[in-house]
Design goal:
This protein has 68 residues and is an all-alpha fold. The chain contains 2 helices and no strands. Keywords: Membrane, Transmembrane, Transmembrane helix.
């Protein structure tokens, strides 16, 4: 999931060939920007999954009040 997310940002921002022997200064800046945004998105996704897991675990561990 993380590779797909980072790759999506890289494909959206970076222009040119990744495998070219020499990059221009603009391509280097685009690559750095894409990697930064990919990392931010991946971190946000991971934080969301952790929060979801915490809330779900808390809801399952709460005692249920029985009324008779």
């Amino acid at each position: 999931m993380g590779i797909a997310l980072s790759g999506t940002f890289l494909a959206a921002i970076f222009t040119g060939h990744l495998t070219s022997a020499v990059w221009t200064a603009d391509q280097t800046a685009e690559f750095r920007l894409a990697v930064t945004w990919g990392g931010i998105a991946l971190t946000a996704l991971a934080a969301g999954l952790v929060a979801f897991g915490m809330f779900r675990a808390r809801a399952q561990n709460e005692p249920h009040s029985e009324t008779a």
